[in-house]
Write a structure and sequence with these properties.
The protein is α/β, with parallel strands linked by helices. The chain has a single domain, classed as Uracil-DNA glycosylase-like domain (Uracil-DNA Glycosylase, subunit E, 3-Layer(aba) Sandwich), CATH 3.40.470. The protein is 39% helix and 15% strand. The strands form 2 sheets. Strands 1-3-2-6-8-7 form a 6-stranded mixed sheet, with helices on both faces. The chain has a two-stranded antiparallel ribbon with strand order 4-5. β4 and β5 form a beta hairpin. It is globular, with a radius of gyration of 16 Å. The termini are far apart. Bound molecules: uracil (URA) and iron/sulfur cluster (SF4). Uracil (URA) binds next to α3.
Length: 209
């Protein structure tokens, strides 16, 4: 099964958002609190695609509201991409986690390729409605999900590529991959990692013209 069985034909973004609440396209819906669909305007020129909602996002039902999201908002401001002009979504729309130990803290688990593939119909439907100038893939899960399994963020980050990757014509839409904001939080050299994220986001800002 995939999300394709749940995506309503001809729906606008609000229609997609409503339908996604009932998605059972993979097993991730069951232990999670709710579907975290997206945030941001329908006329956005930039679409950010993260990995999956985290613990806070799962509780609040909104993407990028936890620690990584706060860092991302600051990076967007520093790159000259006002956050209210940016649409934020994820490759996978339910929080995948393990729960163990005292207190049963929920620990983020990276989604597998099967989850990204099962969830892709939502992202595809969003992108078809949005018609962005630049798509920004944050981290390997989103980048591989949109650019193919052999894509390496470390090697190709910050480059504007045509999207979908098979198109012969140059963009727009462009796609650019960069590191995930949570990678900045985990980095030994946070300042340098943060500066790299902002530099990549500036490439997207410049592409807007
Ligand atoms: N990390 C993501 O990739 N997406 C979110 O929404 C939050 C954290
Ligand atoms: Fe559906 Fe995606 Fe949630 Fe799986 S992760 S149930 S495909 S919305």
């Amino acid at each position: 099964m995939t999300a394709a069985d749940f995506v309503p034909a001809g729906a606008d973004l609000e229609g997609l958002r409503t339908a996604a609440r009932g998605c059972r396209g993979c097993e991730l819906w069951e232990p999670a609190t709710q579907t975290v669909f997206s945030a941001g305007p329908a006329d956005a020129t930039v679409v950010l695609v993260g990995e999956q909602p985290g613990d806070q996002e799962d509780r609040q039902g909104l993407p990028f509201v936890g620690p990584a999201g706060r860092l991302l908002v600051k990076a967007l401001d520093d790159a000259g991409l006002p956050r209210e002009t940016v649409y934020r979504t994820n490759a996978v729309k339910h929080f995948r986690f393990t729960q163990a130990g005292p207190g049963k803290r929920r620990i983020h688990q990276t989604p597998d390729r099967v989850h990204v593939e099962a969830c892709r119909p939502w992202l595809r439907a969003e992108l078809a409605l949005l018609e962005p100038v630049v798509i920004v893939a944050l981290g390997a899960t989103a980048a591989k999900g949109m650019l193919g399994a052999s894509f390496r963020v470390t090697r190709q980050r910050g480059q504007l590529l045509a999207f979908p990757p098979s198109t012969a014509t140059e963009g727009p839409p462009w796609i650019m991959a960069t590191i995930h904001p949570s990678a900045v939080l985990r980095s030994d050299d946070r300042d340098q990692a943060y500066a790299g994220l902002v530099a990549d986001l500036r490439v997207a800002a410049v592409a807007l013209g």
